[in-house]
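Researcher: Next sequence.
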Amino acid sequence: MRGSLAYAGDHPATIAMIADGKVDAYQFITGRIGLDGIVTDGFDELITNKEENVKILVRP
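Model: Next structure:
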């Protein structure tokens, strides 16, 4: 599965800001996990610590 649940109209403007160097996208990546940790290290982490997490990337 790839994609986003919401923000359908925001992607072009966001991509343009990242491409122009106005936004550093790396600052929003708050974690990287393997597929085997998607529940405990991903969903549970986002629910439990929502103030500390923005995006957690999942690597297959």
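Model: The CA atoms of residues 18 and 24 lie 6 Å apart. The mean pLDDT is 86.
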